[in-house]
Write a structure and sequence with these properties.
This protein is α+β, with helices and mostly antiparallel strands and 141 residues long. It has a single domain, classed as Transcriptional regulator MraZ domain (Chemotaxis protein chec, 3-Layer(aba) Sandwich). Helices cover 38% and strands 30% of the residues. The strands form two sheets. Strands 1-7-8-4-3-5 form a six-stranded antiparallel sheet, sandwiched between helices.
Length: 141
């Protein structure tokens, strides 16, 4: 399970250096990852085995969700983590999400989200202004 937040910088080639605390789990999947877009403006990064489960669910959506199928599956790119623990984020995906140098990597359980740091901060601040969702109100803290 991936969790936590990391502030990272992409290098000049658009490579993300995966934090060492996650590398062992990614090595279990032969360093193979899949990256796709998320409708909220970030990228989702899956281990290949997790991607298979997610993509099967997306592929089975009915025709009235064709644009969402296109969004997730049509933007998906298979990548490999290199020996130095870096993953290349394609120029197309970086351009579509506005991810440049300063980024934020969030562990979201079975996958990661990669955000442009400024976009993430702005969206987080906006989301926290609203009311707490009903599902969270039932939790005890």
């Amino acid at each position: 399970m991936f969790q936590g937040i990391s502030s990272l910088n992409l290098d000049a080639k658009g490579r993300l250096s995966v934090p060492t605390r996650y590398r062992d789990a990614l090595i279990e999947d032969q360093n193979q990852l899949t990256i796709t877009r998320h409708p909220h403006g970030c990228l989702m990064i899956f281990r290949r085995t997790e991607w298979k489960s997610f993509s099967d669910q997306i592929a089975s959506l009915p025709m009235d969700a064709i644009w969402h199928r296109r969004y997730f599956l049509g933007n998906a790119m298979n990548v490999e983590m290199d020996a130095a623990g870096r993953v290349l984020i394609s120029p197309e995906l970086r351009a579509k999400t506005g991810i440049s140098k300063e980024s934020v990597l969030l562990g979201m359980g079975s996958f990661f989200e990669l955000w442009d740091a400024e976009t993430y901060a702005a969206q987080e601040a906006e989301a926290m202004k609203g009311d707490m969702p009903e599902a969270l109100k039932r939790l005890s803290f």
